[in-house]
Amino acid sequence: MWFFARDPVRDFPFELSPDPPEGGPPGPWVLHRGRKKATGSPVSIFVYDVKPGADEQTQVAKAAFKRLKTLRHPNILAYIDGLETDKCLHVVTEAVTPLKMYLKERAEAGGLKELELSWGLHQIVKALSFLVNDCSLIHNNVCMAAVFVDRAGEWKLGGLDYMYSSQGNGGGPPRKGVPELEQYDPPELADGSGRAVREKWSADMWRLGCLIWEVFNGSLPRAAALRNPGKIPKSLVPHYCELVGANPKVRPNPARFLQNCRAPGGFLNNRFVETNLFLEEIQIKEPAEKQKFFQELSKSLDSFPEDFCRHKVLPQLLTAFEFGSAGAVVLTPLFKVGKFLNAEEYQQKIIPVVVKMFSSTDRAMRIRLLQQMEQFIQYLDEPTVNTQIFPHVVHGFLDTNPAIREQTVKSMLLLAPKLNEANLNVELMKHFARLQAKDEQGPIRCNTTVCLGKIGSYLSASTRHRVLTSAFSRATKDPFAPSRVAGVLGFAATHNLYSMNDCAHKILPVLCGLTVDPEKSVRDQAFKAIRSFLSQLESVSEDPTQLAEVEKDVHAASSPGMGGAAASWAGWAVTGVSSLTSKLIRAHPAAAPAETNVPQRPTPEGLPAPAPTLVPATPATPGPWETQEEGTDTADDSSAADRWDDEDWGSLEQEAESVLVQQEDWSTGGQASRAGQVSRTSSLDVKSPESDWSSWDAEGSWEQGWQDPSPPEPPPEGTRLASEYNWGGPEPSDKGDPFAALSARRETGAQLRPDSWGDDNWEGLETENRQGKAELARKKREERRREMEAKRAEKKAAKGPMKLGTRKLD
Predict the structure, then answer these.
(1) Residue 452 class from Cβ within 10 Å (0-12 exposed, 13-18 middle, 19+ buried)?
(2) Could you tell me which residues belong to the region Disordered (predicted)?
(3) Are the CB atoms for 207 and 184 separated by under 8 Å?
């Protein structure tokens, strides 16, 4: 019954686009754009409408339908689905564009590169080789209209309407009946002379020559135009001439044509073709070959077409990471290709892989991710950063490799704006405090201070008040000179986050102590910072109404825009100190002390030994500094254009090789004198108000700090200097013998041997009380030892011998 009939076209899982048809090859087919109803993915749909009285064309269309459905090759148009009814034929393929239309669009956009053309022709010749040599089929329709291009720029061979078998079991070649297609027939078929074709591929190779001519010169007006190569590249002309030769016997086999063009200096011998060939066979390549390929791929991507990178290279990179053993080498080309993606594509294709990479234990992959975080951080949302990335990144703070610790610190510049309250103000600050206090690498401590200065505006008000002053004060006591400079500039970069009381009572005392620092670069920056803070205090003193305006950011909530100074300061760590740690570790793992009596930090295990020679410090050129007061400085100050944000931080790489001068414990908060008279024990007893930050320095503070040499203790009363004695002659009678005490003791002791220095007790210069105490302590230890031995003997006698397998409880 008619109401039970179903329309197969309506039930077809693909639908035609409302856009007008794109046209197609000359013949019965019409090419439409379409999409899959379930997923919306784009496809191409070739439609043939059955017309009465056109049985021959209908048979040709059905034969093409069958051939396309059964032939599978990477360089032949890919069949997806089809529909055959009494009224129409629908053939669904991958989304493609006719080559003629593709070349026209690219010409308007600047034209195709020879690299793209070389790979496209390579694909068409390879498809012909497959048909002729593997399938014994003659395409019989090679021309511009039979070639299509997919979204990756890959050329696909279609137009299978007039294909026939070369073995003669399917009859002769079908009649085309289309003048536009018959002009590509070779002369031995067009002249009607009846000469037999000696090779089965001769006709298709002639048509391939016509295709090459049209690709470089446009539409072929007539066969005689083939004699002039026109714009065909010189490296391709000799092989082209073999294709369009009048003698069919000299036309090469498609496989041989590829071999000739791939010879050194040939048109198909280039990096682009080699890359594509490797990608097609990447699944069977050895791991070492894959590693080498991906390492060299990044250099070539700049010259490759964008569509090729997005749709062919990127899937292979993702597959290599997901299922292969490529590892960290895929990261550089992966992020390079990611620049060609829009935000939605990046989220779908790159971000899931990046999140998975962060959980890897491979150190090479982790450090590559940290180094290249700037390329993908903008595509990460806050929940992903806090729950899936940050928990893995923080492990880098505890890594034994200094390079990973350094990169982890610098990655916080990018992650801090996306961290939540707990991760930023609690977890991260704990790691920063430990690094600044205990890390044995000076450049890492320096970078920690720099990073803290830059992310200070993102911290909460309570965290800023508790951490910043204490942390920067600690940095100014660091024995590593660039860390002290970073501490001074850290104060300046966050100057708007301190109250006037803090500036006067906490910051300025610390900075004043640096005015006598052994390093001139530290002193220069300290003087500039002092002038800046004094200018601010003076302006508020002159006009107290400015206090509210000056302190508006002190108690404000965290905001990226609040730290304008820190934002401009951020240019340093990315450029100036990016390789600071690695340089020091390679060249000077442990900097030499400034004086012989200052101990060095121990060299970390696994690092090279310290350089035996002392590398002189190269003073950094002091950069300009920003002051709050304009027009009040001297001529020298104004000529320096005091702007702290233009500081030449790159000079710290030179300062990194300077001598290390120890300083006193930072926990005194800068309030103790730099005269060095505070002992180690007393300095530890002083508690900083910022207990949460200071608690981390129990083992890692700078207790062996550099100090001015304390004056020697005065000698005991009555002691004379050695220079006062008359060593050359007899002592005057009115002066007592200074060695009388020693002589008296020598007489009561053993007789002095004439050839020895004697067995004198040179400690006789000390008091007898000290000797008595030492003897008493020795006797007590001896008595204690005897008592312990007696107790052990009593226990053994009471218990008897121990049995095998029993446990000794005492």
Answers:
(1) buried
(2) 14-35, 541-562, 591-646, 662-810
(3) yes
